[in-house]
């Protein structure tokens, strides 16, 4: 085996061999790295001048673990467990020197070494569970041997990074900084020469009653909390094997459970999502010379529901915000609400009272546009009415400095038209936040016809600064997320007319893994929101007399959802628990009769297909029209904006898993079996037909 010296180097310093990993950007343990480590280890072991070995990294990170892009297959020898077992069985002591964070296989590499030194500010973790798998290179067997069952379960089941300072028993020495690491690692190596190799596998564990109780409590908790996920329970099984089996059998059990997870659609979905989220960050085709602008002061127009939440994102990131309302009263109300939100976080222990004051001190309220002359970015969040938006944008055009970015948070209006109200459409962009804007991670970044590449780059960078996941989309009604959700809501409503109860529809959708069904979601958001959108879209829906007629009648009767104590469901005072209301099905039956729709029993399968497949079909049209750049961008929008289960990878990945031929066949089935309604709404997208006919997937579009 040859060492690829670009990714692994080995040098001798006195009687110590230093193996350095250098596989940018994150030291993923690719085949070349594994081969390099194996060869370097063999060379060090056969060199009589070497008495100890130190493994470290030349990059800021020690290692991000196995190379996830290799999971799709190929010749992967030597496999990571083989390399790590080889290290552990070495006849000379091996020391891991962690200059930076270590995740997954990276931490497992350190655990397979005989001694461990780390910079004390480092975090380490076993995040495999987020990829639908479990640590498969000995992590489930070695970590509990060095720490304890609870620590190992906490790390492996949650996947969360843990400060090394919290891991007693795992590290032999914590060092102050990267600068002091080399000397401390050398010292540990010199001591190790006297003590000899110290394989973790030689530590014996047994399952006593207390430890067994820890496992039982964990299983119960995970069954409740991680509903629908396959890997977390398998993680527990694997860690338990460390207590019930000899080391080598435990490793074999870990390997068996690892493969069981790896072969699930969930693992494929979660690994797809890992790359989807990162791909969304890269916008192809932008001018390489365009530079993101610096944003050090922001203005928000409108201190209502959205304006307040948006402002909090910037204050949280330490960026000063000027909030503008036309009336002092509205301004005071908006600022008071923000303060209340922060104070509630403080009551829950999430913020200190100093932090509350520090964040509030970054917010200034004004009623005069002249105060906006020095801001770098304005986000408009006023009423959803084109004439109001245009007035705001022409005022901004008048007062803002050249180069200021003018953004709108509109959810439905044409951003090209808004941009034309200014003399600088190249600086106008959509920043579509989701409610509650201080909580939801998604930010749809809407590129209008004339938006410049500089402005797009600034918005993508800004999303990271305020800890959002930014996804670039194009202009159309509802952009990507809401355009697709409209189809889903329409179908849920139609199913109610045809005889399905709201409880049945919600149950089926929750079984898919969504946090709530469409009717519970509608009640929570307020049924009046959809009602007003429908009123403004009459031309689009008038050919379907059945379009959301039950919801319309409920709103007209004042049943606007949770906030009114009644919507599709009833709510007891102070409770968010939906209670089924037979009156709603009576309205549905009456409306169905008026429309000549025969009510019938509807299967769960039909409900699932009719809510989700048209949504996917709309996604296909969105891709065909170029409104979204990649199918995986739509998946990111749906997971972060709408709670689509990450273990399904998003709607487009779900479609790939179901098979596009199957989705197409069912769309055609409903197109022909649902009469005029089917003809109107179930016409398959040309892109769906094309891909299904060629046996392709949505994800193949970007390969
Ligand atoms: N394999 C392959 N590529 C990886 C990778 C990995 N383990 N980790 C990160 N990358 C890639 C990313 O895709 C990204 O590529 P891009 O520039 O082309 O988009 C690049 O490295 C930089 O990654 P991030 O943008 O995520 O960089 P950050 O600095 O924001 O985050 C990180 C760094 C915290 C290490 C984050 O990348 C991360 O969480 N990585 C995954 C860690 C992980 O899940 N490890 C377990 C792997 S599975 C395993 O080890 C199995 C074993 O038990 C057998
Ligand atoms: P809101 O009604 O809660 O707040 C609007 C605020 O704008 C009010 O405080 C009002 O006084 C102020 N305002 C109105 N005209 C103004 C003007 N000319 N100058 C300055 N201030 C003015 O509305 P909300 O829900 O915050 O929505 C704002 C925008 O965000 C809309 O475009 C909406 O479509 C969009 N949006 C709303 C979401 C939601 O869930 N509420 C989600 C995503 C986007």
From TrEMBL:
- Superkingdom of this protein's organism: Bacteria
For this entry, the protein name equals 3-hydroxyacyl-CoA dehydrogenase NAD-binding domain-containing protein
Which pathway, metabolic or otherwise, does it act in? Lipid metabolism; fatty acid beta-oxidation
Cite the InterPro entries for this sequence.
3-OHacyl-CoA_DH_NAD-bd, 3HC_DH_C, 6-PGluconate_DH-like_C_sf, ClpP/crotonase-like_dom_sf, Enoyl-CoA_hyd/isom_CS, Enoyl-CoA_hydra/iso, NAD(P)-bd_dom_sf
**Record-annotated 3-hydroxyacyl-CoA dehydrogenase NAD binding domain positions:** 297-473
- Keywords, sorted A to Z: Fatty acid metabolism, Isomerase, Lipid degradation, Lipid metabolism, Lyase, Multifunctional enzyme, NAD, Oxidoreductase, Peroxisome
| Residues in 3-hydroxyacyl-CoA dehydrogenase C-terminal domain copies | 478-571, 607-696
Q: Which reaction does it catalyse?
A: a (3S)-3-hydroxyacyl-CoA + NAD(+) = a 3-oxoacyl-CoA + NADH + H(+)
Q: Where in the cell is it found?
A: Peroxisome
Organism of origin? Glaciecola siphonariae
The UniProt entry lists the main location of this chain as other
The UniProt entry's sequence similarity note says: Belongs to the enoyl-CoA hydratase/isomerase family.
């Amino acid at each position: 085996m040859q060492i690829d010296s670009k990714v692994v180097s080995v040098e001798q310093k006195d009687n110590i061999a230093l193996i350095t990993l250098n596989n940018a950007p994150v030291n993923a343990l690719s085949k070349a790295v594994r081969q390099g480590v194996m060869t370097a280890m063999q060379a060090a072991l056969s060199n009589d001048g070497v008495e100890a070995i130190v493994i470290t990294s030349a990059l800021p990170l020690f290692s991000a673990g196995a190379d996830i892009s290799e999971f799709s297959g190929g010749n992967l020898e030597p496999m990571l467990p083989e390399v790590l077992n080889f290290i552990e069985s070495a006849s000379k002591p091996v020391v891991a020197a962690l200059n930076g964070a270590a995740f997954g296989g990276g931490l497992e590499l350190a655990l397979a070494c005989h001694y461990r030194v780390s910079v004390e500010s480092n975090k380490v973790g076993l995040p495999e569970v987020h990829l639908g798998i479990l640590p498969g290179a000995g992590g489930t067997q070695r970590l509990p041997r060095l720490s304890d069952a609870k620590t190992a379960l906490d790390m492996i089941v949650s996947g969360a990074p843990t400060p090394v300072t919290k891991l007693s028993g795992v590290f032999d020495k914590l060092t102050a900084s990267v600068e002091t690491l080399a000397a401390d690692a050398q010292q540990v190596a010199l001591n190790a020469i006297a003590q000899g190799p110290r394989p973790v596998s030689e530590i014996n564990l047994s399952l006593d009653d207390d430890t067994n109780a820890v496992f039982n409590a964990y299983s119960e908790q995970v069954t409740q909390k991680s509903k629908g996920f396959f890997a977390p329970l398998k993680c527990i099984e694997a860690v338990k094997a460390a207590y019930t089996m000899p080391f080598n059998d435990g490793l074999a059990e870990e390997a068996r459970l690892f493969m069981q997870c790896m072969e699930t659609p969930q693992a494929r979905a979660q690994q797809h999502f890992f790359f989807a989220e990162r791909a969304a960050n890269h916008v192809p085709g932008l001018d390489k010379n365009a530079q993101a602008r610096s944003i050090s002061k922001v203005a928000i127009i409108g201190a209502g529901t959205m304006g307040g939440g948006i402002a909090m994102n910037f204050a949280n990131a330490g960026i000063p915000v000027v909030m503008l309302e036309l009336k002092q009263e509205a301004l005071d109300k908006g600022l008071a609400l923000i303060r209340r939100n922060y104070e509630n976080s403080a009551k829950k222990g999430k913020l200190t009272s100093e932090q509350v004051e520090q964040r509030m001190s970054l917010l200034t309220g004004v009623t005069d546009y002249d105060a906006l002359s020095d801001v770098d970015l304005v986000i408009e969040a006023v009423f959803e009415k084109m004439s109001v938006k245009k007035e705001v944008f022409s005022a901004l055009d008048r007062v803002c400095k050249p180069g200021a970015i003018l953004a709108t948070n509109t959810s439905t209006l044409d951003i090209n038209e808004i941009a034309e109200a200014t003399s600088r459409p190249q600086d106008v962009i959509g920043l579509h936040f989701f409610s509650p804007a201080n909580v939801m991670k998604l930010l749809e970044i809407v590129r209008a016809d004339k938006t410049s590449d500089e402005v797009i780059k600034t918005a993508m960078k800004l999303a990271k600064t305020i800890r959002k996941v930014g996804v670039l989309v194009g202009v159309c009604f509802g952009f990507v997320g809401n355009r697709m959700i409209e189809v889903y809501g329409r179908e849920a409503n139609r199913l109610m007319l045809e005889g399905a109860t709201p409880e049945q529809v919600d149950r089926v959708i929750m079984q898919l893994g969504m946090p709530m069904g469409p009717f519970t979601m509608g009640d929570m958001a307020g049924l009046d929101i959809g009602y007003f959108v429908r009123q403004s879209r009459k031309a689009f829906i008038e050919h379907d007399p059945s379009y959301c007629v039950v919801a319309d009648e409920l709103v007209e009767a004042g049943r606007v959802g949770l906030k009114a104590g009644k919507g599709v469901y009833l709510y007891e005072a102070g409770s968010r628990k939906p209670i089924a209301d037979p009156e709603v099905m009576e309205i549905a039956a009456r409306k169905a009769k008026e429309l000549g729709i025969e009510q019938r029993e509807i299967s769960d399968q039909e409900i699932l297909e009719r809510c989700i497949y048209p949504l996917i079909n709309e996604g296909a049209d969105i891709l065909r029209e170029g409104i979204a750049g990649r199918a995986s961008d739509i998946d990111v929008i749906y997971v972060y904006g709408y709670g689509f289960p990450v273990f399904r990878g998003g709607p487009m990945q779900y479609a790939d898993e179901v098979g596009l031929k199957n989705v197409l066949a069912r769309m055609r089935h409903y197109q022909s079996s649902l009469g005029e309604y089917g003809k109107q709404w179930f016409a398959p997208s040309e892109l769906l037909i094309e891909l299904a006919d060629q046996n392709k997937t949505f994800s193949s579009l970007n390969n």
